[in-house]
Every structure is written in C-alpha cells, then in structure tokens.
Amino acid sequence: MIPTLVLFGGFLVFLGVGIPIPFALILSSLVVFLMNPATPAWVLAQRAVSGIDSFVLVAIPFFILAGNIMNAGGITERLLKLAMALVGHIRGGLSHVTVVVGMFFAGISGSSVAECAALSTLFIPSMVRRGYRKNFAVAMTACASTMGVIIPPSILMVIYGAVANASIGALLIGGAVPGVLIGLALLVEGYVIAIRHDYPPEVERWLGVRAVLTGLWEALLPLGVPFIIVGGILSGYFTPTESAVVATLYAMFITMAVYRTVRWSDLVKLFGEAGLLTALIYITVAAATAFAWLLAFYRIPSLITEALLSVTRQPQAIFLLIVALFIFLGTFMDATPAILIFVPIVQPIAASVGIHPIHLGVVVVMTMAFGLLTLPYGLCTLIACGVADFPVRQVLGMLHLLMLAEVVIILLSVFFPNVVLFLPRLLAPQWL
Predict the structure, then answer these.
(1) What is the mean pLDDT of residues 17-25?
(2) For 201, which DSSP code?
(3) Residue 330 has pLDDT above 80, yes or no
(4) Among the four 89, 100, 216, 333, which has the fewest Cβ within 10 Å?
C-alpha cells in the first residue's frame, strides 16, 4: 500500500510543481524502485526500453508524418468543396461544413490536435465573418476535431492495441461508426442552434448531384488514405504498421507529384515536426510502461479487480465506471499515459464480466477524445481558443452544450456493443 501511495502521490506532486508528464512518471517510479531492494534501479530502465520495443509502435511516426504532409499540401480546401456541396445549403451551413470537413480530415490525420489547429485556422474566422457567435464557432470547431482520434487512422488506437494486445485492425474499423455518429450528432445540434440564432446557409439551395460529384472528384485522392489503410489491412497485403508507411508514401505522392503543393525542401520541416512529436510520444510510452509495471508488481490491478467485483458484477455498471474513470483522467492528463497506465488495470475487470476488448478499446479512446475538450487539460479547447484569441471562460457554456452530443454517442456505444463491433464482425470476424 505504501509504495502505491508513494507512486501516485509522487506523480501528482511532480505534476503540481510543473514537471512534464513523462518525467513525472519516471521520477515517481524511480522513487518507488529505490524504496525496494527487490526492484533494482536498472529494472526501471529495462522496463522503459521494453515499452517502446514494439513493431506496432513503429506505425505512430508514419501516421503523424502522413497527416503532416497532407495538411501541408492544402488538402483541407479540397475537402471544403465537397463538404459545401453536401451540407452548405442547410441552415448554419458553415458550421456543418466544419463538422463534415472534420470527419473527412479525421480519416487522414489520425490526430485531433493537428486537426484542431487546421480547422480553427480555416473555419473560426470565416464563421465569425458570417455572423456566427464566436463562442459557437470556437466550441463547434473544438468538438469537431475530436473525431481525429476516433475515425481511422488513429494514433490512440495503435497505442491501445499495443498495450492491450488487441487487434489494431479491428480497433481502427471499430472506431468508424462511433466517429461518424459523433459527427452526425454535432450536425443535429448545430442545426438546432442555427435555427435559434438564425445562422445563414452558405448557398440558397442544394447544389445538386453534379456539384457533389465534382467535389468528390477533387477530394478523391486525399479521401483514399483511410481506404488504403483499412483495405490493405483487411486484404492481408500489409500489417497496420506497414499500412502507415504506405499512407506516408501515398501522401507524398499526391501532394508532391499530383498536386505539387509540397516541395522536397518542405520535407525537412515536416519530418522534423513528426520526429519531435514521435519522440514525445515514445518518451511518454517508455515512462508509463515502467510506471504500469510497478503497479502490476504490487498487484494493484488484481486488488482493484477483486474490490470492484465484490461490489457489482453487472457489465454495464462496470463499463460506466470505466468510462467515468477515463473521462476524469482525460480532464487532467494526456491520453497516452492514461491508456498505458490504466488500461492494464481496467482490462482484467472488463474481461471478467464479458466486455469485449475491442469494444472496451474503442470506448476508452472515445472518452480520451472527450477529454481533449474538458479543462484544465482540454487541448482542443485551448487550441481553438488560442487561434481565435477568445477567452476560455466565455466558451464553456456553448462547449458543454455541444459536448452532450459526444456523451450521448459514448453511452450509446456502451449500452449497444454493436455500434462498435458491427463493422469488425462484418469485415474481419477473424480478428475478434
């Protein structure tokens, strides 16, 4: 009990004095290692290195790089034309276009943070110029960007699959339907708010099938990324890791050879940005792996499982507790350490009451995406407010209203497993 208190207490103290999360994890782990002669300090380094010694994690830098190249190649404007043809005629058209572009962009970037920066720069000023209230423009953009880690490809799905030893292909496919449902729920909420505040459509009438086909033609190559990744995995042509490499090569081809919007000289910056973000993720993975090993060493997951199952064995009640835990964690910490530390704790509990690991994984990622909106961590909220130069406190009311859409879809996914499992069971039952 004392080592556990020191572990978590030290972590919170180090965070409180401003030490970054990876170093707070490793320092608190080091203190506990030094307390017990049975755990020499060299084991800490061994466990940390073993955490990143995984072929699956090689996919992360390539997914990041593919998203960076696509973003630099100006594909957002191509997605915009298709989205405008689809939903621009609806009342509050520009907010709907923001959501639809967010859904498309999610299938390319794999990162909500990158998506939020791109959407905020493009759509918040445009919505404000069209007469939308700034708090609505900021809140809608932040919420739309959370789909980036749910709709495949998703960096968080890769991390979850690595730590939970679950099929990454099934996780990627399983996130598609919930991600789209979040987008549709945001469209409904946006329409209701647009009616109330008389926000205008962008075009007087639906532009017709021809405009949709024209927009689809221009956006066809960027939209091919998720189909190449998922299709390649399903067909067995390449693994999830290899699919990330193929996605990067594909992104380079269409932006450099077809559109000619990215030059060879631009790659230095893009590779450097991807390398820095990858390094941060890998350092966090290494530190969290050592932290999680200590939890297992002191039997914390087993003790929590026994304690919780002594109270209830109702699957839905336990699932709701898990959702509440990860929403709480997302409020205060990054998704990567939260998944790495706490998934090994909750996974045995979920398995003991029959919750499918793919079902659990997708819902956990959804709750961590929700955490990108909740303060004080709330990266997507902070990025959108920063780009718009808008006080965070003035966006909270509208933000909380729009967040209800995501809460509804998370709960729907909890109580109806087929929301998550339908596509994996249909397309890849061998992975379940």
Answers:
(1) 85
(2) P
(3) yes
(4) 216
pLDDT at residue 18, rounded to an integer: 81
Tokens 């000289």 belong to residue: 265
CA neighbor of 254 nearest in space, from 66, 36, 382: 66
Give the up-direction half-sphere exposure of residue 413: CA atoms within 13 A in the CB hemisphere: 30
Q: Which domain holds residue 111?
A: 40-431
* Domains held by the chain: number: 1
User: pTM of the predicted model, to two decimals?
Assistant: 0.90
Domain-located, residue 346: yes
Would 24 be classed as within a structural domain? no
Average pLDDT over residues 237-247: 86
Classify residue 25: in a domain, yes or no.
no
Whether residue 211 is predicted with pLDDT greater than 90 in this model: the reply is no
Please indicate, yes or no, if residue 117 is contained in any of the structural domains.
yes
Residue type present at position 128: V
Q: Between 110 and 366, whose confidence is greater?
A: 366
DSSP state of 199: P
Of how many residues is the chain composed?
432
The 10s digit of each residue's pLDDT in 128-140 is 998 999 999 999 9
Tell me how far CA of residue 404 lies from CA of 22, 139, 182, 188, 407, in angstroms: 31, 12, 10, 11, 5
Cα–Cα distances (Å) from 196 to 190, 199, 255, 295, in that order, read 10, 8, 41, 51
Q: Determine the Cα–Cα distance for residues 374 and 377; give it in Å rounded to an integer.
A: 6
Helical ranges in 146-235 per DSSP H = 155-164, 168-174, 176-197, 209-235
